Amino acid sequence: MYLHLYFSTNSTQYQVFLNFKFKKLYYQIHFFCNLANVITRNKFILLSMATPTTSAHSDVLSLWNSKNILNKSNSNRLHVESNPLLTSIFQMVRTVPVVVDVKKMTQQYVGVDVEEWWGWKIEEIFGEGVLSYTKLIHPSDLGVHNLCNKLLFYILERCSTEDKYNLNILLNFKLRKSDGSYIHITQSAKILELDSDGSIRSLLVLLQENNTLSDSYQRRYIRFWGKDFDGRLYEYLPDVEDLQQIELPSKREIEIISYLVSGEESKTIAEHLSISKHTVDTHRRHILQKFYLKNTGELINLIHITRLLDSSN
Length: 313
Fold this sequence. Notes:
The chain is an alpha+beta fold. The protein contains twelve helices and twelve strands.
């Protein structure tokens, strides 16, 4: 196993890449840091997750030193046991890694103790498997959670085995803490194992707090993307309990969005792209219309939640 840590930066953003190899499999954790957040709140936004490029359920658990969970005598015992380096990283970005047995609807592994963050003991939030966890989702967000699952199975029916392993799944919702208050969560998932019939056996799920959103923030999104899979983005419409597919931004729009997220103004963006300020302002209006948004602040929230600037697998 080896580790490679390096930084990439521009005027207001930092990116941190942690690369490592384990049992001939390559992993990457990619962090995106807004300098203002680092200075004022010391919060990081996790854009992508550590996952292998092939099926490697046991390798992932071994990487996190979860030897006990591979022992049959301990297979039903929930516990927190993780590689110290990865534990420190997940704690830094307020992210809980979970390995889910989809067939049994139980958590096989939880990588961070959430009692200090959310007030729940591990048995309280995960003791009854997926059921105990979903009970804590805000009632108004159960719809987006259920629709995401239905959409996932629809997409999987049309994916090759390789595409399934490369698929990224993301949605956001609110989760209840033990004191009754709610926190915003962005949930990312990737498939670890498939059965012989192509159905999911196990998932790696990351539950990340999103402290950049206000308590009143109501928008809920679902995103699917992968190496050779055309990405899809949806917004949940609670009034009709359905999803609205959103057209993905063009390459030029992505360029402009990346500058907007960095805090750049239209004039500066125009200079960077060698186009007129009027053209930039036109693109900005079209981007807001495409996403059904009112202002740049709402756009930045959408980008942080859906990680649209991260097109990697």
